[in-house]
Amino acid sequence: FLLFNDEVKNVTIRNCNFILPYNTSQVAAIRRNSAVTQPCDSLFITNNYFTGGYYATYLYGTAANTCTNIFIDSNFIRNTYYYGFYNYYANASYKDNTVIRDSVLNTSNYYFYGIYAYYSKGDITGNRILQKETTTTRYTYGIYTYYHNSTGSTNNMIANNDIVLHPMGAYYGIYSSYSRCDIWFNSIHMISHNTG
Q1: For residues 116 and 87, is the Cβ–Cβ distance under 8 A?
Q2: What is the C-alpha end-to-end distance of the chain, expressed in Å?
Q3: What confidence score (pLDDT) does residue 22 get?
Q4: Is 175 exposed, middle or buried (0-12, 13-18, 19+ CB in 10 A)?
Q5: For residue 163, what is the DSSP state?
Q6: Which among 37, 98, 133, 192 is placed 20 to 30 Å from 66, CA to CA?
């Protein structure tokens, strides 16, 4: 996998296959940790295939050192343990990605997040998120944003996403809290398997 422990500037990751073990050790195919103090700017993640791992991408900044100008486009993710895309203080735009969970290998895995954006900025458009594993997944979030673009002068867009969820418990197609976003033209289909 790729681990960024130094400055990231004008980096493109394209047409790669990332095949990781399915486990709980918080492994990510592409990872930037919070301890990195060098700038992170202009990162392009395009047309890659991810399977397994805890995350596909894990991009972690801080309030003082936010990652900027990240573009995540046309990637395919299948059966990560917990998150598809995860960003924290990382300003990323997500476009035309596919995130699928159709099986799990660990029966204690109760959560699924397709796209998780926390203290971040960027449009989230044209993505396809499908969760159809119904044995263990109890808490399902297609798109989760928290303080997303909360200090922006104009709204970000969460638009034209296609989300299909088959949860066993609590579920949210789009969960957006303290976020400044226009949420338009998304298709959300929920098929609950909750028997409780």
Answers
A1: yes
A2: 40
A3: 78
A4: middle
A5: E
A6: 98
Residue pair 133/101 in contact (Cβ under 8 Å)? The answer is yes
> Phi/psi at 174 (nearest 5 deg)?
-130, 125
The angle subtended at Cα 142 by Cα 24 and Cα 158, nearest 5°, is 130
- Using alpha carbons, select from 74, 77, 101, 47 the residue that is nearest to residue 58: 77
Rg of the chain on CA atoms, in Å: 16
pTM equals 0.93
Q: How far apart are CA 187 and CA 128, in angstroms?
A: 10
> Which two three-digit tokens encode residue 30?
């592409």
Residues composing the chain: 196
